[in-house]
Amino acid sequence: MVERYALEPLKSLWTLKAQYERWLEVELAVVEAYEEVGIAPRGTAEKIKDKAVIDVDDILAIEQIVDHDVIAFIKSVTKNMGDEARYFHYGLTSSDVVDTANSLALVRATDVIIESMLRLSDVLYEKALRYKSLPTIGRTHGIHAEPTSFGLKFLSWYAELLRNIERLKAVREEIAVGKLSGAVGNYANISPEVEKIALQKLGLKPTPVATQVISRDYIAHLISIFALIAGLIERIAIEIRHLQRTEVLEAMEPFKEGQRGSSAMPHKKNPILCERLTGMARLMRSYAQVAFENMALWHERDISHSSAERYVLPDSTMTMYYMLEKTRYLIENLKVFEERVKKNIDLTHGLVYSQRVLLALVEAGMSREEAYILVQKYALQCWETGESFKEKLRSDTRINQLISDEKFEELFRPDYYLRNVEQIYERFQK
């Protein structure tokens, strides 16, 4: 956990105390199930709950001796218990408790993350509507292409986020599984009935087949979805970073009162939040790689996955939540310089209308190849000289003969490129 990037409520979810509380939650659910099937006397779970004390320091002190965290947990929590302690961890193996408790943590973390995604989606949609009619220059390969709607940037991000919300909702249901089937998953010392009852109390389902652990494809799937979400956030961040470049300056991430951009240069306003998000997206992809590596374990299990997951499960969920919350802040407070957006369309002195001229010549009867060669000739000249593309074209007699003055003027209007934007928005009307 990096304190700098740890936000509540996920920060508290992954404390050591919270981990032990989840372990106790699982143990109690099993005892309650034993009561229902007649293995443990009625009231056993209540007695355990009353006498169980989670003392983190005591657990860690015992672990220094036994070198096993679950055994240390059991010894510490049952210290003050009487005969009821016989049913604590009865028929279970450590992974029953740890894996099922991890599922609880991941489900709860994912619920928080989904809520954050929904809040971000509202902000993106609002910005998409606000800038729907603002013409901007579209860029491909970083080069001016043709005018488009500035709002479509936000709508594109919104559409991708909606897909990721549905993906995460689906995987949230998938990971809501537990395993209470004993040392190698064959129910030798605990019954499937007890597992089903206990997991229902926890809001989980039994994984269909387990070894000593729950198969790690569940976790790999979840974190791969996180990586997809992080990829979207990186796409947003990189776009804003480019738009904030001094030569472009169409948008700028928020810069708070009193904030400093550089220790040396007082004038600097740097896209530090976008750059931070870009770096975090790299981390998220690395977490996914670790999750995939954890899938292949020896036989019924080894613990090569365990140490990795102690890093990856808290860090991936907390990083994902941080990225979403900061992206929402970024979009909510993004500065858009509308006049600069419009002005930049004309930086190339009309070259971005080349396809409209090409198609107008084709419509007027010129072959496409001949029209392309003619338009490109003047376009390349204007690239070199900085002359007006519009005036250069108008000096050509063939173009004058084929395209009227009125039609020619219409070819250089940016509003034309927004004529079907409304139909795109209709796909997302709430």
From TrEMBL:
InterPro entries referenced in this protein's UniProt entry, alphabetically: AdenyloSucc_lyase_C, Fumarase/histidase_N, Fumarate_lyase_CS, Fumarate_lyase_fam, Fumarate_lyase_N, L-Aspartase-like, Pur_lyase
Start and end residues of each Adenylosuccinate lyase C-terminal domain: 349-429
One GO biological process term: 'de novo' AMP biosynthetic process
Keyword RNA-binding: no
Annotated keywords: Lyase, Purine biosynthesis
Catalytic activity, reaction form: (2S)-2-[5-amino-1-(5-phospho-beta-D-ribosyl)imidazole-4-carboxamido]succinate = 5-amino-1-(5-phospho-beta-D-ribosyl)imidazole-4-carboxamide + fumarate; N(6)-(1,2-dicarboxyethyl)-AMP = fumarate + AMP
Enzyme Commission designation: 4.3.2.2
Top class in the EC scheme: lyase
Pathway annotation: Purine metabolism; IMP biosynthesis via de novo pathway; 5-amino-1-(5-phospho-D-ribosyl)imidazole-4-carboxamide from 5-amino-1-(5-phospho-D-ribosyl)imidazole-4-carboxylate: step 2/2; Purine metabolism; AMP biosynthesis via de novo pathway; AMP from IMP: step 2/2
Record's keyword annotation contains Lyase: yes
Pfam family, one: ADSL_C
Cellular component, GO, one term: cytosol
Single annotated GO MF: N6-(1,2-dicarboxyethyl)AMP AMP-lyase (fumarate-forming) activity
Family: Belongs to the lyase 1 family. Adenylosuccinate lyase subfamily.
Name by which UniProt lists this protein: Adenylosuccinate lyase
